[in-house]
Amino acid sequence: MKFPRFTRKTLCIPYAVFLIFFVIVPMLVILFYAFTDDEMHVSFENFIKFFSDPTKLSTIVYSLVIALVTTVVCLVIAYPVAYILARSKLKKKFVILMLFVLPMWINFVLRVNALREIFNLLSRSPALEWLADANYFKTVFGMVFDFLPFMILPLYTTITKIDNSLYEASADLGGSALTTFSRVTLPLSMPGIMSGVTMVFLPSMTNYVVSDMLGNAKVTIIGKFIYDYFGNDWHMGSMIALVLLVVVFLSTWLSGGFTSEENVRGANL
Amino acid sequence: MKFRQIASVALSAALLLPTLSLLSGCGGEPAITLRVYNWEEYIDDGGEGSYVYDLALEEGADEDDIVAPSILEDFEQWYFDTYHEKVKVVYSTFGTNEDMYNELKLGNEYDLLCPSDYMIMKLANETKEDGTPYLEKYDESFFDKSDPLNYYIRNVSPYIQEKFETNAGLNTPEGSPRWSEYAAGYMWGTTGFVYNPEAKVEDGTGNFVELGKFLEEHGWQTFVHPAVRNKITAKDNVRDTYFAALGVAFEEELLALDRSADDYIERLTAYFNATDEKTIDRVEPKLMDIKKNIYSFETDTGKADMVSGKIYINYAWSGDAVYALDEGEAGEIDEKTGEIKEGSQIFLDYYVPEAGSNLWFDGWVMTNGVTERGTKKAAQAFVNYMSMPESAKRNSYYIGYTSVIAGENREMLDYTDWLYGVDEEEGEYYDLSYFFGSEAGIYAEEEQRTSRQLFAQFPPEDVIARCAVMDYYREDASERINELWSRVKAEMLDAWAIIVICVTVAAIALFTVFVKFGGKIDFFRPKPKKGYHKVN
To answer: Which residues have a Cβ under 8 Å from the Cβ of B274 and sit 6 or more positions away?
Structure first.
């Protein structure tokens, strides 16, 4: 009897099986539900309804804005941190990095709940009373709080990997610190930025735990919308999910365009 | 290195152990598996704070010695002792009726479910896609009072049984199934406002009034009154909040109804179940006002927010109200003295709007196929076990809701008396005959009779008389209401805002595309083969 040869390809089988059952099949199911009606006939009704309903368009645009703001804020905070950490000669910078990543080890619901209580405490003082009503602010704050490590880590890895001789070369050729940053560091850390952006942007469009708990469920992002629709109308819910999928696909495809493949390595967590 | 190896072997062994024990567990004698699907936090879980535990504590037992198992474990034991068969309860929970319905629709198999009134009706009226019904009727013998093991029918309050037999007076179409064919009651109650009576609000004229008075004066309008802005919560589900918005929109009409008329309850029920376009047009702006005025839409944070004093009013189910009242009353215990810290207690009240509110019932139903699966006997036994006065006390004590059980010998009345009753001289008579039968009642203090736990658990008959049961949304109504809800929950952007944002996003996208392809159109060309590199 001859056993099938064990090759490296064999190692892919578990992943392939996983991919088929947990990615491809569910995707097909969503596609199926999105384009059928209650009697399971093919129908484009949901498609038309989605794009003619200002509520749904509004919600998806709102989520987009929230996600964009979250991403930008995360980037603005994370880049300097990652840069300083990566370029400094601190002996224990690993510890400092850990401090930023540590929150990820604590249960996420717990952290959001704690933040909610902090906001409530703060809004009791007269000067900060506006906080009680600032549901959008609190939602974005929570998202930033939650996703910041996902931005810092890939940035840190890419910036550390930049060859020191490049900085030296830049200095040799008379480049100022600013020029070095804009012509060397920034372009070379682009893969890190992109993978950080993807990892923050996508979940912040759908993470409705944050918007429910910090936005007092008065902020409805697209993820919550899908959840609500799945309570009673799977077909519409699937259609919204599908539209979101297209948006996500487009943004990933576009952002992938900034990098050539060999640079991405290591930056994609 | 060696240590690491040993450690890793030990760790993996430890991980494997539970699997092994599971495997060996399968080898034993065959047990029936009863899959029960119930609301979250809706059954006695045992441990600290449970009825058994607290009772033992009161009798002077040592904290560490008390064994208070969950009621499910006790059921399994009881079933074995009674029927000499093993049963294994697989218990899972859901958060909303709709979640449960979806699970069923997906084809997940459960034996026993605990939906609310309208969902019982929906399930009883609908069939699955393959034409089989969702539910299975109870055996006729289940309702035979002569069998001592039929705890449900022997102990259930006649008031509840009457409601279940008449579908609680809902105007259901001719030939509709009765609840009692498919369902045995579990808990029941009303919805209303939990409020902090000590909080004072400015009522717009510069006067500060107590919240109790304010609620009496404004009823449902409290939801949209600026005086309680950010101090009130609504439920984050369409059923309860639409109901509340109906109350806000139709309060005047509801108050104008003639209470003594024969058709009062029918008309009240019709108002609270209206789903036509005209009604929705009137309710929608009210829902928007509610959204603007409330602190949050919540599903389970309301209780804690009340107790912490963050909000003054919480629209809640009566059982949750009792829970919040109990929690507030308990306060914080000082570790050193063992006494309640001063000022940590908060005494909350419960109020049911004058214009009418919701009366609801949750009941056990069996899914279709329990006979084939051989679990019907166990399912009915489960319901019977839960209906023993002792079990009803345990569940009710643990979750705060009111059991449908009265008890053959009015055990639940004694229990209620034990909880809330006082001596004859100290309180006044509180009539509970509607629930427990003639001449039933207890003596209680005024607060208990009018606004606290006793009132929330067993509202007086005249309060119940102005409460309506919810019907399920039939086909097209369901879509209308859901669309309405999505309009309420979503933030509506103006057309120009959408356009501006879309244009911005499109510009970013175009820019990216430009950067990506940089004017080169070689995107569609095949990529060079492996090993060759394109030279720019």
So the answer is: B246
What DSSP line would sit under B287-310, residue for residue? HHHHHHHSSEEESSSHHHHHHTTS
Question: Amino acid letter at A85?
Answer: L
The model's pTM is 0.84
pLDDT tens digits, one per residue of A141-174: 999 999 999 999 999 999 999 988 998 999 899 8
Q: Which two tokens stand for residue B200?
A: 């004072």
- Residue B38 is part of which domain span? 27-187+362-403
CA distance linking residue B341 with residue B344, whole number of Å = 6
Residue B27 pLDDT more than 50?
A: no
* Beta carbons of A220 and B491 less than 8 Å apart: yes
Residue B401: pLDDT over 50: yes
**B230–chain A Cβ distance below 8 A for any pair:** yes
Residue range B478-504: mean pLDDT, rounded: 85
Judge: B297–A225 Cβ closer than 8 Å, yes or no. Answer: no
Q: H or E element: which one contains B113?
A: strand B112-113
The whole-chain average pLDDT of chain B stands at 87
Q: Cβ–Cβ of A218/B297 closer than 8 Å?
A: yes
Q: What are B187's strand-pairing partners?
A: B362, B403
> Residue B232 — very low, low, confident or very high, per pLDDT cuts 50/70/90?
very high
A137 and chain B: CB distance < 8 Å anywhere?
A: no
CATH of A51-264, one of 3.40.50.1240, 1.10.3720.10, 3.30.300.30, 3.90.1150.10: 1.10.3720.10
CA distance B68 to B312: 35
Q: Give the per-residue pLDDT at B1.
A: 44
Residue B151 and residue B218 in one domain? no
Q: Are residues B384 and B269 in the same domain?
A: no
> Half-sphere exposure of residue B536, counting CA atoms within 13 Å on the CB side?
3
Interchain CB contact of B284 with A (< 8 Å):
no
Tell me: pLDDT of B144 over 90: yes
**Residues of chain B above pLDDT 70, percent:** 90
Pairwise CB contact (< 8 Å): B486 & A229: yes
CA distance B87 to chain A (A): 33
Contact assessment for residue B221 and residue B248, using Cβ atoms and an 8 Å cutoff: yes
- Check residue B511 and give its pLDDT: 78
Contact (CB<8Å) B515/A257: yes
Average pLDDT, chain A: 86
The shortest CB-CB distance from B491 to any of A58, A212, A232 is to A58
Q: Give residue A264's pLDDT.
A: 45
Please name the member of B296, B482, B502 whose beta carbon is closest to the beta carbon of A232.
B482
Residue of A nearest to B487 (CA): A55
What interface predicted TM-score (ipTM) does this complex get?
0.78
Number of domains in chain B: 2
> Closest residue of A to B515, CA-based?
A258
Q: Inspect the interface and report whether the beta carbons of B490 and A133 lie closer than 8 Å.
A: no
